[in-house]
Backbone:
């Protein structure tokens, strides 16, 4: 959770910078790793559906950043924030929150 939260902070902080695409891709990889780890665990895990949605929205954002020359529309960032916070809520981690840019 901490890696994802901190990764998102780097995404937000890097908006407009030359390495923004790299930060988005790194965040996307962290979310994918968390999903893969959850998927490989024994039995259903709390928050699987929300984490899958976060992974999807993260990939959508990364794709738009790639095709739109290092940026994306605000709605793509907001979708990641909403799905990330839904995941934190589902796994009952009130100590983490993703904020919008």
Residues:
């Amino acid at each position: 959770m901490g890696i994802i939260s901190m990764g998102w902070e780097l995404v937000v902080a890097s908006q407009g910078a030359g390495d923004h695409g790299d930060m988005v891709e790194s965040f996307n990889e962290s979310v994918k790793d968390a999903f893969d780890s959850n998927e490989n665990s024994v039995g259903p895990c709390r928050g699987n559906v929300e984490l899958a949605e976060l992974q999807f929205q993260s990939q959508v954002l990364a794709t738009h950043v790639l095709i739109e020359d290092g940026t994306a529309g605000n709605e793509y960032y907001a979708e990641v924030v909403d799905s990330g916070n839904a995941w934190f809520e589902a796994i009952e981690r009130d100590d983490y929150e993703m904020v919008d840019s």
Remarks:
- The mean pLDDT is 90.
- The radius of gyration is 13 Å.
- The helical segments are 2-13, 20-39, 48-67, 74-90.
- The chain is about 70% helix and 0% strand.
